[in-house]
Amino acid sequence: MPSAAPFDATTLPRIPRASVSSHNTPDDLYCIIDSHVYDLSDFLEAHPGGSVVLAQIAGTDATTSFYNLHRHEVIVKYRPSLCIGLVEGETPQIIEPHAGDLSPVPYAEPLWLRPQYESPYYKESHRALRKKLREFVEEDIRPEAQEKEADGTYISQELIDKMAGNGLLAMRLGPGKHLHGKELLGGVVKGEEFDAFHDLVVGQEIVRANARGFQDGNMAGMFISLTAVREWLGNVELKEKVTREVLSGEKKICLAISEVSLPCHQVACTSKA
User: Fold this and answer.
1) Is 104 part of any domain?
2) What number of CA atoms fall less than 13 Å from residue 213's CA on the CB side?
3) What is the β-pairing status of strands 183-184 and 189-190?
4) Radius of gyration of the chain (CA)
């Protein structure tokens, strides 16, 4: 799924505050959020919190009210369809995060990512991996995750191919020989250098898609089952064949386990979707 183009409000008209205040009825409802002007007339009945709430802020500056109840991501989602301009003579004050950025909120990030903190375990390659992977999650995984979470459909082959191409599928298995010779995420870390702390970075970043159901469907079965294949399959030729086909995105794999009350028989199964 291609990433959505960034919304640029600077190309929109400048609207005087006095003009906004005159649009204060259910059929003609404007409001201001961080110097952006929104026309909510057609959104009134679609608002998840009900129409009464929007009627109460009609024609006003609703910045404080909005951020008391919503994360910034909500306004980013609706801005392209509802924003009609900027308040004349004003500049938005909310810091707009960009893909890969660290949060400025205290304790919102692991301490090792703070400039003033030095860790003997996390090095420059871990920081580079964190930034590049966060960009990929925010630009490629998150949009599809939100869509699939809403409609219940499967992860796309396009996204699987992207994760295969940049090495993310292989990284999900953790450190190992399966990574050797690979340039991960465009070369931010070599496969031979990928360690347990790189693996921890992957785990922390990939969940930022904020879609719990999709997260389990995003090849979670692969790193459980392919790990078992690589650990216990004695036929080396078959092991490498299965690994190659799965990590290339060509085939999918899952792990079937019998009832927990019976002796555990683990069977790795491969199939084409």
Assistant:
1) no
2) 11
3) antiparallel
4) 24
DSSP 11: G
Which structural domain range is residue 61 located in? Answer: 9-87
- What residue has token string 């301490």? 111
- Is 163 part of any domain? yes
Domain assignment of residue 184, yes or no: yes
Other residues' Cβ atoms within 10 Å of the Cβ of residue 185: 19
Is the same domain home to 166 and 35?
Answer: no
- Cα(264)–Cα(267) distance, rounded to whole angstroms? 10
Q: Is residue 245 located within the same domain as residue 152?
A: yes
Of 46, 71, 87, the domain-final residue: 87
Residue 38: helix, strand or coil by DSSP?
strand
Q: Give the CATH number for residue 254.
A: 1.10.540.10
Side-chain half-sphere exposure of 205, counting CA atoms within 13 A: 30
pLDDT for residue 2: 38
* Rounded average pLDDT over 203-213: 90
Q: Are 160 and 136 in contact (CB under 8 A)?
A: no
The pLDDT-based confidence of 247 (bands split at 50, 70, 90) is: very high
Taking alpha carbons only, the member of 38, 24, 112, 28 closest to residue 74 is: 38
Q: What is the pTM of this model?
A: 0.71
Whether residue 199 contacts residue 171, with contact meaning beta carbons closer than 8 Å, is answered with yes
Q: Are residues 131 and 34 in the same domain?
A: no
Q: Which residue has the tokens 């899952």?
A: 254
Both tokens assigned to 38 = 């929104």
Instruction: Count up the domains in the chain and report the number.
Output: 2
- DSSP summary character for residue 141: I
